[in-house]
Specification:
about 110 residues; two-stranded antiparallel ribbon; about 5% strand; globular
Length: about 110
């Protein structure tokens, strides 16, 4: 699958304008105090996933994957907030991450 930077840009702009009664999708935010909270939640979730992974429970693989997903989601929300935006759901987080944090091209060293 090819990463389409224009798609992410257009979706980011669309979701930034879209608002529901109690939902905002993507909005500008200066709530930087939340960054540490998201990082803590992400780190704690990852530690929990490692603990569950080492258990002998039947459903450990399912829960390890689920908790790791949320760990990454929290870290993505922290990175997006560092750029001055906040997201309200999983899809908006994916779009904001792609638009704000994926470079147009990778610099060669």
């Amino acid at each position: 699958m090819v990463f389409d930077k224009n798609y992410y840009k257009n979706e980011f702009e669309r979701l930034s304008k879209l608002k529901g009664e109690t939902k905002f999708f993507i909005r500008k935010s200066s709530d930087t105090f939340k960054i540490k909270r998201f990082i803590k939640k992400g780190t704690d979730s990852f530690e929990l996933a490692n603990y569950i992974k080492s258990s002998n429970q039947n459903a450990k693989d399912y829960w390890t994957i689920t908790i790791c997903y949320y760990s990454m989601l929290y870290m993505a929300k922290a990175a997006i907030l560092k750029k001055g935006y906040e997201t309200d759901d999983h899809y908006s987080t994916q779009i904001a991450l792609g638009h704000l944090l994926v470079p147009n091209e990778i610099k060669q060293v």
